[in-house]
Amino acid sequence: MPTELEELVGFITNPRPEIRGLATENLVPYSTSQPAIFKADKLKPVTHLKLLIKDHPKIAEHVITILINLSADREVLESLATDDKFLNEVFRQITIPTEPNANLLSMLLANLGKWDALKTVTNKKQQPPDGLGSDGLVLNQLLDLFVKGAGGGYNKHADFDHLSYLFADLSKHSEIRHHFVRKQEYDGVIPLNKLKVFTEHKSDVRRKGVASTIKNVAFDVSSHPLFFSEDDIDILSYLLLPITGNEEYELEETMSMLPDLQLLPPDKQRDTDPSIIQTHVETLMLLSTTRPGRERMREVNVYPIIRETHLRVEDPGVQEACERLVQVLMRDEADPTKEGHDGGQVKAIEQAQNEDDDEIIEV
């Protein structure tokens, strides 16, 4: 005989919307406290929930929230992330300018990005909605949603901030990294250039996801010339500004810095999140993998900024990352015994990144 909770789960398929609404609303807390009830009968409840994301907006809100929480379970995550019909509906709905649950769909996609096979999103295509100005590739549509949707610019119900977490997970894969640094035919823009402008955004979520995406793409050493090129990505100022505060430098130090770093206002504040600062310093560490990268950072006097960051940010992770970078920037390039020294540091960064990537959003 089914328990009351099992009976409640059964009501999510009731033909009456008011019954479905009450059932899904009351089931939201159990999606974190007792997720096993949704895995009965070979995930049949999950199968029903996947269909209900198209239900009335209020019911769909509860359904998507439940799926966000359940995606912490590996079996449920696989069921969601490998269901092409379900994914296509999520991609379709999130691009509708009036979709009231677009932010929840962003959170759901952020969690689905934990499933490696979701990288095939680069090959998925759908008709872009009017007003988005994107092409038929789903990944480009999500990138344009993220850019145009900031602060409710595309959909008044959503800011799409959590898509940055999806980009961060997708950029662990080489084909996605390749996509992020290649100019797109439809708008002539390199995708990473759309993201880099948000390294100082007011949203902690957006800044954190963008910082991690840039760092992951920087693992592709072959693309480093693009990172430094003024005609391509030109990333350095976007990494250095968030970690720079209002400290004063000697005139000689200042004059060698990038122009954007020379005339900062007296109320300039560095990022308040130490984990984001650490991520940016680790990205600089990755970009120091090649000698041209190290020489460019010396040329624009990155060292004093890292020195002050180390002094002023009392966080072990930040300080350790700063120390690693300083060791590389200050070393003697003429010493052949130092060649290859960066490899261990890069491996350590990658290991730490993989540990961070396990986090799942819950609602």
Automatic annotation (TrEMBL):
Coiled coil regions in record = none
Segments of skewed composition (Basic and acidic residues): 335-344
Q: Region Disordered: list its residue ranges.
A: 335-363
Q: What is this protein called?
A: Protein HGH1 homolog
Top-level lineage group:
Eukaryota
Q: Which residues form the Protein HGH1 C-terminal domain?
A: 283-335
Annotated signal sequence range: none
The protein's matches in SUPFAM superfamilies, at most eight in alphabetical order, are given as: ARM repeat (SSF48371)
Organism the protein comes from: Monosporascus ibericus
